[in-house]
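Researcher: Let's continue the batch. This sequence belongs to Nucleoside diphosphate kinase, and it's 135 residues. Same format as the previous ones, please.
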Amino acid sequence: SERTLVLVKPDGVERGLVGEVISRIERKGLKLVALDLRTVDRQVAEEHYAEHAEKPFFGSLVEFITTGKVVAAIVEGPRAISAFRQLAGGTDPVEKAAPGSLRGDYGLEVQYNLVHGSDSPESAEREIKLWFPEG
Ligand code: GTP
Ligand code: MG
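Model: Same format as before. Here are the structure tokens for Nucleoside diphosphate kinase:
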């Protein structure tokens, strides 16, 4: 069994899609082991997206993620990292995310793609520590 860090980003929270995201996680058979609605400070957002620090969209990404409430969750199950990435769909909601995925069903723009899921065991460990430092 494996753990992954899932975020419902501010667009998902504002649009009332938290229940939909959680519902799909649960229907898949994955388990929620932590769940929290919160605002993110700039430091955590920059740390979370550190791998994108040199990208042209980094500023607007950090700005966006800190402007509204997010839901942070730890999700657990067999191959949870890959399983949630499949539920989320590709980064670009129109050209990469398949219909039937969260982004494919609900997204239109790359920046407003509803959810985040860790992309590797190393990322998951780092992100879980960052978002849930209390353990
Ligand atoms: P996350 O689960 O959020 O990390 O998405 P991802 O792993 O599918 O994509 P990636 O890590 O490459 O990019 C992180 C986030 O940056 C994406 O989810 C998008 O919100 C945003 N992003 C990626 N590429 C672009 C881009 O070209 N333009 C803009 N505006 N945002 C982008
Ligand atoms: Mg990523």
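Researcher: Any comment?
Model: The longest helix spans residues 18-28.
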